[in-house]
Amino acid sequence: MAGRDKIYGNAEGYDALAAFLREHRPEYLRHLYPRQEIANFPIANFRREGFRWLREHCPLDFVQRRMDERYGSSEILDNSALT
């Protein structure tokens, strides 16, 4: 999968996303990369359905900002935005 589908962040963001996924969508934990202690490392790489679900459900600002950067600020990602 291309780098455009990755979410970047720091260790604190990684922990927050992992905790959110653990509580709400544990099957998505497999998309997380190993945790690192540096700034701006790739945290996760999701498929289309994962990005759609995160856009609709994830309250973490850094995740929503990444969605805005990559796909625009639409509320729901459609197929055309994910090609």
As residue ranges, the low-confidence spans are: none
Terminus-to-terminus distance? 12 Å
Which outline best applies? globular
Question: Could you estimate the helical fraction of the residues in percent?
Answer: 40-55%
Helix-and-strand structural type: alpha+beta
Q: What percent of residues are in strands?
A: 5-15%
Mean pLDDT: 86
Strand numbers in spatial order across the main sheet? 1-2
Quaternary status: single chain
List SSEs in N-to-C order: EHEHH
Tally the beta strands.
2
Radius of gyration: 12 Å
The major pleated sheet works out as:
2 strands, antiparallel
How would you characterize this protein structure?
This protein is of the alpha+beta class. The chain is 42% helix and 11% strand. It has a two-stranded antiparallel sheet.
Summarize it.
This protein is of the alpha+beta class and 83 residues long.
Topology:
Layout: E1 6-9, H1 11-24, E2 41-45, H2 48-57, H3 61-71
Task: Spell out the key features of this protein.
two-stranded antiparallel ribbon, single chain, alpha+beta, 2 strands, 83 residues
